[in-house]
Design brief:
The chain has about 375 residues and is an alpha/beta fold. The protein contains 13 helices and eleven strands. It is elongated, with a radius of gyration of 37 Å.
């Protein structure tokens, strides 16, 4: 028995067929091979004689589909509107290449490093300071009489340091550091060096230098200079002397140094200037090295070649011989607190933890033009 199709049903299927033809072939009524005649539908053509009329662009197909959805009567208008907006964003939401947009886009934005709320709440321990002077430690002092620091017997020395006059060499560095901050009232001095020898117990290299300097009455400087001399007691090599002292400067002043000066042996100048600065991406023009000649400078120069090669292969000192030395110089497993205390350097800490052989290339507080807030 033939099925009766009501005019309403015919109209419904009619609109659906038109919508399908519009979506599939990019046109809406007599195009695309479908002819509407008296409610009957011809079969789609097997072969396309003219491909050009079927080549609808993506935007045209999307738009015809949107019209079909909006006027099908089976979708509410607000849903259709949302779909249209989403599709338009997907279709035209790429880069805006208009001249107006290019002209109004910000150029050369100043990078900003933001501190956490808790970090900003910490007040500086000392005001009016801009520059940093570092004296890396080379040994731990054992005697209770700090006035006898010129005697090498009172220091815990490595075999290559058992030289007459080595104690005086250390004191030259201490005095040189004090002279630097006397001539610059906006600078602080940090003695850097950890508890590197088990036989010295809780005494660190930095504390040894500070105690000796005080015992010698700050080498003739005004006693007020004491308020600008501090210690950094976790560094285990020259790279950490530089990085950890910068972190200690931040802990004290809540900012990073404008200029860094290191007082040490002349033989180690190249290690700092050519390797450590590059590893930390610290600007060369903001760094100064003051070197003194070691007693065994010829032997030290030869040894420095080997050390520089090691740091060239391992800039952060976390592999091979450099890593072994660090472990030996931390007999009490104290490590370093700066990863948790100087969180603005988190990206650098992560880079160092991966033991990468490449310098960190991200934005740092001392990167030129960076603002720390």
């Amino acid at each position: 028995m033939p099925t009766h199709v009501s005019p309403k049903g015919t109209s419904f299927f009619h609109s659906r067929a038109r919508a399908f033809a519009s979506y599939r072939f990019g046109d809406d009524e007599h195009h695309g091979g479908i002819a509407v005649q008296s409610g009957m539908y011809d079969r789609l053509p097997t072969h396309r004689t003219d491909d050009s009329k079927y080549r609808a662009s993506r935007s045209r197909r999307v738009w015809t589909r949107i019209r079909a959805l909006m006027f099908s009567g089976r979708r509410s208008k607000w849903v259709s509107f949302i779909v249209m907006i989403l599709l338009m964003r997907w279709l035209f939401g790429g880069k805006d290449t208009s001249p107006i947009s290019r002209a109004s886009a910000p150029v050369n934005q100043i990078p900003v490093l933001r501190r956490s709320v808790s970090d900003r709440a910490v007040l500086p321990a000392i005001e009016g300071i801009e520059d940093l002077v570092i004296v890396p430690g080379h040994a731990v002092y054992l005697s209770g009489n700090f006035r006898a620091a010129r005697d090498e017997a009172n220091w815990v020395l490595e075999p290559y340091q058992l030289l007459e006059g080595e104690g005086k060499s250390f004191m030259e560095h201490m005095e040189g550091g004090v002279q630097q901050i006397v001539s610059n009232p906006e600078a602080i001095l940090i003695f850097s060096g950890g508890k590197t020898r088990r036989e010295a117990g809780a005494m660190s290299e930095a504390s040894s230098y500070w105690q000796v300097t005080r015992a010698f009455d700050w080498f003739g400087a005004d006693v007020s200079v004491e308020s600008r001399i501090f210690t950094e007691e976790h560094a285990r090599d020259s790279f950490e002397n530089l990085l950890f002292s910068i972190c200690r400067f931040y802990e004290l002043t809540r900012k990073f140094p404008r200029k860094v000066t290191v007082v040490g042996f002349e033989s180690k100048r190249a290690r700092f200037e050519k390797l450590h600065l590059s590893t930390l991406s610290f600007p060369r023009e903001r760094f100064n090295y003051i070197g003194t000649e070691a007693i065994n400078h010829l032997e030290m120069d030869l040894g420095e070649i080997k050390v520089r090669d090691a740091f060239q292969r391992d800039p952060h000192g976390c592999r091979g011989e450099l890593a072994v030395k660090k472990l030996d110089r931390d007999p009490f497993n104290e490590g370093s607190p700066y990863m948790s205390q100087v969180k603005i350097l988190n990206s650098l800490w992560i880079h160092i933890a991966t033991c990468s052989q490449r310098p960190y290339t991200g934005t740092l507080p001392w990167t030129p033009g960076v603002i720390v807030r």
